[in-house]
Amino acid sequence: MTIRPALRPGAVLLRRDATHLQIGTSPGFVLRDRPGLFSVLRLLDGIRDVRRIADLTATHLTEFDGNVPAIINELMAAGLVFDARNWDFPADPRLVGEARSASLTGSPPARLHHRAEFGLRLSTDKASTELARTTVAILARAGISTTAGDQTHLAVMLSNGEPGRQRFQEAMESGIDHVRVVVEEDRIRIGPLVRPGITPCINCHDLHRTDWDNAWPALMTQFGASTAFGSPPALCATTLHVAAATIAAEVLAHCDDTAGETTGQCLVVGPHYLDHQSWPVSFHPNCSCTLLAAA
Ligand SMILES: [Zn+2]
Description:
- This protein is of the alpha+beta class and 295 residues long.
- Helix content is 34%, strand content 19%.
- The chain folds into two domains: 5-87, Outer Surface Protein A, domain 3 (Alpha-Beta Complex); 118-294, NAD(P)-binding Rossmann-like Domain (Rossmann fold, 3-Layer(aba) Sandwich), CATH 3.40.50.
- The protein is built from ten helices and eleven strands.
- A hairpin with a 5-residue loop joins β3 (20-23) and β4.
- The longest helix has 19 residues, at 237-255.
- The radius of gyration is 25 Å and the shape is elongated.
- 31% of the residues are buried.
- Zinc ion binds at residues 200-201, 203-204, 284, 287, 289.
């Protein structure tokens, strides 16, 4: 089978004026019209292959006197037509949208196939459950589940307020990449995402904090303790969803091996859903985490 040409994802085919066609409106691409071209372009639905389109044109669109394969090649070179075979994901049709988006950004859709094997683990407490649930729903649409495989490629650790440090120490010792997500009152802090021995860790963050807040070590001993009293968060729905999308984006960046926003950085979403703050987290000279890379 030859390629299955499809009009640019999401673009609409329009008549611009008596002598031109237009594909899309943002801002859109203008083509010089010719007899039958509009009808030929309507055949580019991602289902028919080039041979079928050429046969249909020869049989039913006799007013068109152009070379169908050549025109399709030209339109593909111009980014107006794509090969829909790249969007075939019979095992997970939800990835079709991801693949169509990847085509427009120039990312090879084929890399999406490995999302099904990505080992994602989430841990939550009661107050962060809704945030985790929303994040999981977004990731499911992008082809990532929390049940794939036995290996953990990334652990997302959500909590209401700062959690106990034991879980981070265990992840460091096991060499598991992890990202901290802390719900704080009416906002959500994401990061840093830690690749043990490669990027700054939570202990680096704690040591930096201790440099300017000498009570931080005393506070840390109470994080996650059963005796700690915590008030439920005050998250509005819009902020929660933007934060969930941000967390999901970090997971996808990790899965796709691209640069995320929270490697060596904390990112805060809220209180308003458009509010974003970030600050860097560097290696602390007294943290031994960099020795892991040398081990
Ligand atoms: Zn460190």
